[in-house]
Amino acid sequence: MNTVGRNVVLSDETTLGENVTIGNNVTFHGQVEIGDGATIFDGAVLGRPPMSAGNTTRPLASSLGPLRIGSGSIVGANAVLYAGSTYGNRVLVGDLASLREGCTVADDAVIGRGVLVMYEASIGARTRIIDGAIITGLATIEEDVFIGPGVNSINDNEIYLKRFGLAEGKWRGATIRRFAVIGAGANLAAGVEIGRGALVAPSAMVTKNVEPWTLVAGIPARTLRRVSDDDRQKILDKFGLDE
Predict the structure, then answer these.
(1) Do residue 109 and residue 4 come from a single domain?
(2) 3-state helix, strand, coil in the chain (%, to 5)
(3) What is the pLDDT of residues 160-197, one digit of tens each?
(4) Quick one: which of 157, 152, 211 has its CA closest to 182?
(5) Is residue 3 part of a domain?
(6) For the domain that residue 26 is a member of, what is the CATH number?
(7) In this structure, are 106 and 15 located in the same domain?
(8) Among 42, 105, 126, 165, which residue has the fewest nearby CB atoms (within 10 Å)?
(9) Assign residue 179 a region: left if phi > 0, alpha if psi is -120 to 50, beta otherwise?
């Protein structure tokens, strides 16, 4: 038995599992697949197609697959989830979040209130992205990462010329390895890699790769010290891993 609120617009290609709850004023576009026991709060927009007025630098994909939301997932009020993305089971998407096309969000991930995730980003299982963060397009975030509130990332260090078509159109998001922590308000430049278990201090500006199990801070970010052996071992033991 599904529960559907008032003023809900289901597309002809919407597929609902069992025991789905949909709030009021929810709109479905195109092919949307909702897993068993999922909850969609009021005002959400699901399967929104990307659209350009002809003035964007990056071309849009010509075709997109369905939006898939896994079992037990929750989509917050007024969240906007674009077409062509896949969400695992028990994913939590906060109110007012917006996630673009081509994204993959694995099981048990948390996307906080007002988070913006751009196109073709990959977010690993159990990763938490806290309120107001901006995850750039083509970013890769592995499992068990923590990203604090207000973190910003970019995928283009050549925008000065590229916006006029004077540089080649290549984009590279950040790569954040497993167990890393990005502190509140930190900024990540295009293409940087944050190593496994690394810590980025709040408000740091990361312009170069960060070595695994190190702490960086400052503008630009510099290495302050290594994560303690005791802390590193506790994390590895928790997941039954070797170095």
Answers:
(1) yes
(2) 5, 30, 65
(3) 888 888 888 788 999 999 999 999 999 999 999 999 99
(4) 152
(5) yes
(6) 2.160.10.10
(7) yes
(8) 165
(9) left
Check residue 78 and report its DSSP letter: T
SS3 242: coil
pLDDT digit string (tens) for 205-240? 999 999 999 999 999 999 999 999 999 999 999 999
pLDDT tens, residue by residue, 11-58? 999 999 999 999 999 999 999 999 999 999 999 999 999 998 888 777
Burial 120-148 (b: 16+ CB within 10 A, else e): bbbbbbbbbbbbbbbbbbbbbbbbbbbbb
Looking at the structure, do residues 229 and 125 belong to the same domain, yes or no?
yes
Note down the domain range covering 44.
1-49+66-114
What's the Rg (C-alpha) of the chain? 19
Q: How many CB atoms lie within 10 A of CB 18?
A: 11
Averaged pLDDT, 109-129: 98
Name the token pair of 214.
């190190």
- Asked if 79 and 155 sit in the same domain, the reply is no
CA angle 86, 91, 8 (to 5 degrees): 75
Please count the structural domains in the chain: 2
pLDDT of residue 144: 98
Mapped onto helix, strand or coil, the DSSP state of residue 219 is coil
- 99 in a structural domain: yes
